[in-house]
C-alpha cells in the first residue's frame, strides 16, 4: 500500500507520485514517513528529502517549509525545492559566495536582512551538498554502499 507524496513550492509542483516511503528534514530532526503514518503537521528545516519507490530513491534539496502527513498522503509545502538533477552546482556555488561576501562585509543593524542572507547561504549550501553527494551515487540501488577507498597513509 503506497502513500501519495506531493512536494510543492509557491511556483510549482516539484514532485507528485505514490511512493513507499518519504524521509524529511524536520526542524527537530529527520522524519521517516511510511503508509498509515499518524497524522502530523511539522515545520521543515533546510535539508534533503528522500522519496523511495520500488527500491529506487529520488532526492530533493529543500529550503524549509511545512509538511502535512496523513495516513495516505504527505504534502511538503517547501519554501524552495529542487530535484537533485535540476541543481546547477556552479550557480549554487556563486550564490554561496555572494552570501558569504555579504556576511563578511557585515550587515547593518537589520535583523531581517541578516536572516535573508543567512537563508540564502543555507539554501545554497544544501543544494551543493545534495547535488554532490547524490550525483556520485545516483545509480546505486537502495541499501547499497559506495565502495570503500583505501586511505593513503
Description of the structure:
This protein has 153 residues and is α+β, with helices and mostly antiparallel strands. The chain contains two helices and eight strands; from the N terminus they run E-E-E-E-E-E-E-E-H-H. Helix 1 packs antiparallel against helix 2. The radius of gyration is 17 Å and the shape is globular. The C terminus is likely disordered.
What value does the average pLDDT take? 84
Helices and strands, in N-to-C order?
A: EEEEEEEEHH
Number of domains: 2
What structural class is derived from the secondary structure elements? Answer: alpha+beta
Distance between the termini: 49 Å
| CATH fold descriptor of the largest domain | ATP Synthase, domain 1
Q: What's the helix count?
A: 2
State which percent range the strand residues make up: 35-45%
Reconstruct the topology from this structure:
Layout: E1 3-8, E2 13-19, E3 21-26, E4 29-33, E5 40-53, E6 56-70, E7 73-78, E8 81-83, H1 89-105, H2 111-136
Parallel strand pairs: 1-7
Antiparallel strand pairs: 1-2, 3-4, 3-5, 5-6, 6-7, 6-8
Amino acid at each position: 500500500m503506497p502513500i501519495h507524496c506531493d512536494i510543492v513550492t509557491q511556483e510549482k509542483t516539484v514532485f507528485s507520485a505514490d511512493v513507499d516511503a518519504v524521509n524529511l528534514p524536520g526542524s527537530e530532526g529527520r522524519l521517516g514517513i511510511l503508509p498509515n503514518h499518524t497524522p502530523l503537521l511539522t515545520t521543515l528545516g533546510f535539508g534533503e528529502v528522500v522519496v523511495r519507490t520500488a527500491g529506487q530513491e529520488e532526492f530533493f534539496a529543500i529550503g524549509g517549509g511545512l509538511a502535512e502527513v496523513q495516513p495516505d498522503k504527505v504534502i511538503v509545502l517547501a519554501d524552495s525545492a529542487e530535484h537533485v538533477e535540476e541543481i546547477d552546482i556552479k550557480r549554487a556555488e556563486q550564490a554561496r559566495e555572494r552570501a558569504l561576501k555579504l556576511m563578511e562585509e557585515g550587515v547593518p543593524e537589520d535583523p531581517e536582512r541578516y536572516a535573508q542572507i543567512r537563508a540564502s547561504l543555507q539554501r545554497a549550501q544544501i543544494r551543493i551538498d545534495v547535488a554532490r553527494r547524490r550525483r556520485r551515487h545516483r545509480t546505486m540501488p537502495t541499501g547499497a554502499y559506495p565502495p570503500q577507498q583505501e586511505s593513503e597513509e
